[in-house]
Design a protein that fits this description.
The protein has 266 residues and is of the alpha/beta class. Helix content is 47%, strand content 13%. It is built from twelve helices and nine strands. A nine-stranded parallel beta sheet has the order 5-4-3-2-1-9-8-7-6. It is globular.
């Protein structure tokens, strides 16, 4: 059951969730990268569905997803590749990260059913606010998939309460306002932000945006239940020998996180 698989992944706190777009740098290599980062220690994987206007993404992921589109990636092909990864015995939970317009064009009911059939565990849709998510949320519920909702440092207490009530699987905490991309240091106030959300929900909290080194991942892992790394991983896979480079980077993140334990009251 997809939600149960997500819960099991977060039982290994802090969980590591790398992001990687299907089709980059080419279709076969992206499959090999995902196999490699699974062996490297990924507990869940955020699988990128490419879109021509990725508003939440920085230049590294924008470039990668544009190349994936040039390679012929579509939602349908992405779902075929998810199914292929399952045939290759990749068992970690898959969260499909994409933007809403292509999903709407595919047809939400068909999309959720096809994603469940392919072996996905849920969706991450950064441009779908909770106020507009009822239909997709309900469809995901019918198939026991997770629709992951976002909170930002600017979220009000009222919004945190509203999003927390709808949480399934985990909550995605954006560490800073702005777009994805590696940063030299973690933002000020991140601990306080995580604590504000944690005081209102028992749902696992995963932090993403700006995490680029094993040391930063460990720092986030000391305050959150999950660590999301995207741009830094995609950049590692851009320098040649993509599966090996990506796998080695995720292994370094995993090894650093396994040295990290959350305080007992977390």
């Amino acid at each position: 059951m997809p939600l149960a698989e997500i819960e099991r992944a977060f039982a290994r706190r802090p969980a590591l969730m790398p992001y990687f777009p299907l089709g980059y740098p080419d279709l076969d290599t992206s499959l090999a990268v995902i196999e490699s980062i699974t062996r490297g220690g990924a507990d869940l994987i955020e699988i990128g569905l490419s879109f021509s206007d990725p508003l939440a993404d920085g230049p590294v992921i924008q470039r990668a997803t544009q190349i994936a589109l040039q390679n012929g990636m579509t939602i349908a092909r992405s779902l075929d590749m998810v199914a292929e990864l399952r045939r290759r015995a990749v068992r970690v939970p898959f969260l499909l990260m994409g933007y809403f317009n292509p999903m709407l064009a595919y047809g939400l009911s068909s999309l959720v059913a096809d994603a469940a059939r392919a072996g996905a565990d849920g969706f991450i849709v950064p441009d779908l606010p909770i106020e507009e998510s009822d239909e997709l949320d309900a469809l995901c519920g019918e198939h026991n998939l997770a629709l992951i909702h976002f909170l930002a440092p600017t979220s009000t207490p009222e919004r945190i309460e509203r999003v927390a009530r709808r949480a399934r699987g985990f909550l995605y905490l954006v560490s800073l306002t702005g777009i994805t991309g590696a940063r030299g240091q973690l933002p000020d106030g991140l601990t306080q932000f995580v604590d504000r959300v944690r005081s209102r929900t028992s749902c696992p909290l995963a932090v993403g945006f700006g995490i680029s080194t094993p040391e930063q991942a460990a720092a986030v892992g000391r305050i959150a239940d999950g660590v999301i790394v995207g741009s830094a991983l995609v950049a590692k896979a851009s320098d040649g020998n993509a599966p090996e480079a990506a796998g080695a980077f995720v292994r370094a993140l995993h090894e650093q996180l396994r040295k990290t334990t959350l305080p007992p009251d977390k």
